Amino acid sequence: MPPSDSLQLDLRSSPRLISMMLGVHILASGLLLPLTFPVWAKLILAAGLAGSLALQLLRQGWRLLPGSVVTLTVRRDRSAGLTCEIRLRSGERLPGPVLGTSLVVPGLVVLKVGGRLSGPSWTVTVPGDALDAEEFRTLRVMLRWGFQAIPP
After folding, report:
1. Are the beta carbons of 82 and 98 closer than 8 angstroms?
2. Strand ranges in the chain using DSSP code E only, listed in sequence order
């Protein structure tokens, strides 16, 4: 991939993120058992956890809901720094600056994108298996250093 000031990424389903969500929700459900709450209260809490799991799997794991992020376009702008345009499954586009609170680690990127006119910011979780390895590496380098790496 030649060096560029723009990177467009089509996100796909992430088996790693799905399994982590399942594990965390199952662990939280298991922690309800030793509580001294009445059974009806535990059932309500378990139903809330099941609803949370279903929502997160559909929104972030499988990216099937209208509000799910399906495409990221990261650009380097000489005056504004790094900017990102998020495209949702519904077709809506949300542009904004990449915030310094974004997290970039070897297997995961948590991208924080500021909203328009000081509106709410968006958080996009990008696990390493949601992209091809080279695309994920390029995204990490671009976010960490502000430019796209030249391939070896």
Report:
1. yes
2. 6-10, 69-77, 81-88, 93-97, 103-105, 108-113, 122-127
End-to-end CA distance of the chain: 10
Tell me the pLDDT of the chain averaged across its residues.
90
Say if residues 117 and 49 touch (Cβ distance below 8 Å): no
Of 83, 80, 95, 92, the C-alpha closest to 143 is 83
- CA 84/CA 96 separation, integer angstroms: 6
Residues 6+ apart with CB under 8 A from 6: 73, 74, 75, 76
Q: Work out the average pLDDT over 116-137.
A: 90
pLDDT in tens, 40-72: 999 999 999 999 999 999 999 999 999 999 999
Edge-to-edge strand order for the sheet containing 81-88? Answer: 6-10, 69-77, 81-88, 93-97
Task: Give helix 39-56 / helix 15-30 axis angle, nearest 10°.
Answer: 170
The confidence score (pLDDT) of residue 4 equals 59
User: Shortest CA distance to 75 belongs to which of 98, 57, 52?
Assistant: 98
